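User: Can you help me understand a structure? I only have the sequence.
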Amino acid sequence: MRKFVTKRKMQRIESDPNVNIIVDNFHGVNWRQKLVMPIFVVYRDPKDFPGKFVVRIFDGKKPLRLVTVKDTLEAARAAIQQGPPFEFGNMGRSTEDDSVIVESWI
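Assistant: Let's start by predicting it. Here is the structure, written out as C-alpha cells:
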C-alpha cells in the first residue's frame, strides 16, 4: 500500500529545521558566493545514518539541512565539489571533534 504525503504535511517537513534534505552531491552551486564560510564535514556511522558516510554543509558553525549519504569515504569525498573555482582543502579532524567526524573541508 502506498502512503501519500499531504501538501500540509510536506510544508511542515520543509519548514522543520530538524529534517535533513538529502542530495546526491554538492556540485553545481557556488557555495563561496552563497555562504559566508562554507565547510563540509564528513561523518562516519552517525546515529541518524548508521553504517553510512554523511557529508553535511555548514555556514561557519551553523549546520544547514543539506546532507549527502554515501556507502564509502571515497564516494562521500567525491560529493564535495572540487576544482577551479572551488578549492576546498581537507583539514582532517581535530582532537576536539566528535568521534564520528572523519574530516572537514574548508
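Now, to help you interpret it: The mean pLDDT is 85. The radius of gyration is 15 Å. Let me know which part you'd like to focus on.
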